[in-house]
Structures are given as C-alpha cells and as structure tokens.
C-alpha cells in the first residue's frame, strides 16, 4: 500500500460521502466515492442510495466525465466486480481509464470479496487498500452482519442513571429546586437527540409489549434526516395484548406506512384481523423456554424483510433476555449524572427465567469501547461480538 499525504484527506472525504447515505442505502452497504484528475483536482463525487440504483463509483464517473481518464478513485469499499442490480462497477472504471483506485476495505461479502480488486489489477489499474480500514468496517458493520450471517446487527441501547436504573418509578427529569427528578426523561436533550440519530441509522427498533403498555411510545425516527423506508417498529407481544388505542397503532392506522410489526406466539384470529385492518403486521413465532416470542427467530424473519440493523430499546426484561441469550452485537448505554436508588427499576431484570446454557453468571466482555459525551450525560459504546466474524 503506497500512499501520498493527500490520499488520507481524500479517502476521509469518501468516508464522509458514504455516511451521507445513512438511512438511504440499506439493505446495501454505505459507499462514497470521489475522483481526482491527473492534476489532482477533484472532478467527481458520488454517494450510493438504494432507490437511486446507481453506485457511488458510477455517479462519480458521470460527474467527472472525460477528466476521470488517468485519474484516481477514492472509495471506502471495494468496487463491485459482479452483476447485481447494476453491471459491475469495475467494468465502468476500466472503460473510463481510471489509473488508480484507493479503497479502505474489501467487500465483506465472502462470495465476492477481492474479486473487484483482482479485475482492476488485471486491467493494469493500481490498487491501494487498507487506509482507514477500521473506520470503514464500523461504517458497514450492519451490512457485514446481514450478508455474512443472515441476521441483522443488533444494538442494545439504553439510557440509565449512574447506578444502572432505567426508571425512577415516578419520573426521570431533574428538578433544579429540589435536586430530585420530576419529569419524563433521565438523560438530557443532547443525548435524546443523538438517540434519534441512532434510530435513523437503523432499519428497525424493537421493544417488548411492557414498554408499550407502560410508556405508550411512538417509536419513530425524529432525526429529521431523509430515509428510503420508514423505521420498522417491532414489538414482541406473546399474547397480542397491543392496545388498538395506543399511539403506535393509531399512527399505523393514520399513516399506512406498513411500519409496525408484532411478533406473537398465539392470538385470536379476530384480534389479528383487527390489528391488520389498522395497518399493523402480525406474525406468529415459536415460544422460547419462558413462553415468550423466540427472539432469534424474530431476527431471522426481519432479515427476510431485508432489515440489516435493529436497535433494541426495551425495558428491564427485554434487556436481560437480549444479554442472557447473547443476541446483542453491540451496546450503546447513555448515563445521566444521577443516582435513582433502590426503589427504581434496574437496567436488566431476569425475573427467574430459565434458558438452558444462556446466562450471565460469567459475565460478558465488552470490547473496542468508546466513550462519548452529550451535555452532562456520558455514553459507552462497545461490542459483544465482531460483526465480521
């Protein structure tokens, strides 16, 4: 890998172009590309979006025109060298006379990984790979998990106090006069805004029926950023207790976006029909050892719908089940500067469940930990498994 000082800057720009495709590219990867001509002048850029069909490399070539000949392509992901929804990008790059390709990483799809690079090299194109690879891998970790394992990437997200409580039992917003909590939220506005940015980056959000009954949430993406398809709102509800008057059902009935899906074990056919008439999808899945919807099967069903990423925003029981069954790939925990005490709801509660072979007695190791700050709040991000493994 031979790099000149300007390569870093240009490849970083390609990564930023790729990020602009968040919410627009799934179930395909995030890809950004730019082309500089023989004089080193930027002449073309492209960001992939699924609805736009054309790949980032093709968009960059089209904007560069003849000035691409002899130039360099910078891209975060290996140009694809196989026939998919579109012809191979490698063919277009070779025909345009691109002299050099600088990429961060190979395609995570093991069936095609390296094929694009080999085709380019066979045509005499210089290929440099590996700069900013870790950043590029994080950018497309959901696609990697989905394409390699046939399930979406699962992020367990929670907001809690310093003593790992998610609900004070009566409220969650600090009252400045009494130094107590008297409102709705544990974390501040900056953390909540970021949580919606995370929702935007995911294809689906998953909760248990307990969260719906307790909080009556909408579970929507309120980031204000564009997305190709609405955030899929998924509920685990064993006996289909979802109230028709709940805000999530009423929004489904009003907007008809097909964006609410309930996984149940058994339910009266009339009840299922009633919810379906209101715009709610209902699917039955097997029960787990505790008589609740089998989460792994639910994830497989989501993958069948081309859902590549799921953010779990459940209560204590769902959190415990996700961790105990080692379903989460990564965590994102917000911590407010507060102590809620013994009368509050813990982050994860087992409730005497029994799943043979799946417990937390030995704990779980979190790796690649990153710390973030949002106003007065802190956050911990880390991995419970490598999405590429």
Q: How would you describe what is shown here?
A:
The protein folds into 2 domains: 5-139, Cytidine Deaminase, domain 2, CATH 3.40.140.10; 142-383, Dihydrofolate Reductase, subunit A (3-Layer(aba) Sandwich), CATH 3.40.430.10. The protein has a 9-stranded mixed β-sheet with strand order 13-12-11-10-14-6-15-18-17. It has a 5-stranded mixed β-sheet with strand order 2-1-3-4-5, sandwiched between helices. The protein has a two-stranded antiparallel sheet with strand order 7-16. The chain starts with a helix and ends in a 6-residue tail after the last strand. It is globular. β10, α8 and β11 form a beta-alpha-beta unit. The protein has helices at 5-19, 56-64, 89-96, 115-122, 133-139, 141-149, 189-201, 209-215, 247-255, 269-277, 295-304, 316-324; strands at residues 32-36, 42-47, 72-77, 100-105, 126-129, 153-160, 165-167, 174-175, 180-181, 204-208, 232-236, 260-264, 281-284, 309-312, 330-335, 345-346, 367-374, 377-383. The longest helix has 15 residues, at 5-19. By secondary structure, it is an alpha/beta fold. It contains 12 helices and 18 strands.
């Amino acid at each position: 890998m031979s790099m000149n000082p300007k390569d870093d800057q240009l490849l970083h720009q390609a990564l930023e172009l790729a990020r602009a495709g968040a919410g627009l590219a799934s179930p395909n990867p995030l890809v950004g590309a730019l082309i500089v001509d023989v004089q080193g002048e930027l002449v073309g850029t492209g960001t992939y979006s699924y609805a736009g069909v054309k790949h980032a490399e093709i968009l960059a070539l089209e904007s560069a025109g003849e000035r691409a000949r002899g130039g360099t392509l910078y891209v975060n992901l290996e140009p694809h060298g196989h026939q998919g929804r579109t012809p191979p990008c490698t063919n277009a790059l070779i025909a345009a006379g691109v002299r050099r390709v600088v990429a961060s990483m190979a395609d995570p799809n093991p069936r095609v990984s390296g094929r694009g690079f080999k085709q380019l090299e066979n045509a005499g194109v210089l290929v440099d790979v590996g700069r900013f690879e870790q950043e590029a891998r994080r950018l497309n970790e959901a696609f990697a998990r989905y394409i390699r394992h046939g399930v979406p990437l699962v992020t367990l997200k929670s907001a809690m106090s310093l003593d790992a409580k998610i609900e004070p039992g009566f409220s969650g917003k600090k009252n400045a006069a009494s130094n107590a909590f008297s409102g709705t939220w544990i974390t501040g506005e900056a953390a909540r805004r970021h949580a919606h940015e995370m929702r935007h980056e995911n294809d689906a959000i998953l909760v248990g029926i307990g969260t719906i009954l307790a909080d009556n949430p909408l579970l929507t993406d309120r980031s204000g950023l564009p997305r190709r398809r609405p955030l899929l709102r998924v509920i685990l509800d064993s006996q289909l207790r979802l109230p028709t008057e709940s805000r999530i059902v009423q929004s489904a009935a009003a907007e008809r976006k097909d964006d609410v899906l309930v996984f149940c074990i058994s339910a009266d056919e009339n009840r299922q029909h009633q919810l379906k008439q209101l715009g709610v999808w209902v699917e039955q899945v097997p029960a787990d050892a505790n008589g609740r919807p089998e989460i792994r099967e639910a994830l497989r069903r989501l993958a069948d719908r081309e859902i590549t990423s799921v953010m779990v925003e459940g209560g204590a029981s769902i959190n415990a089940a996700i961790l105990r069954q080692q379903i989460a790939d990564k965590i994102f925990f917000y911590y407010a500067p507060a102590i809620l005490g013994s009368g509050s709801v813990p982050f994860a509660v087992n409730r005497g469940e029994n799943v043979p072979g799946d417990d937390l007695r030995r704990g779980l190791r979190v790796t690649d930990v990153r710390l973030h700050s949002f106003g007065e709040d802190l956050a911990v991000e880390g991995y419970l498994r490598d999405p590429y493994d």
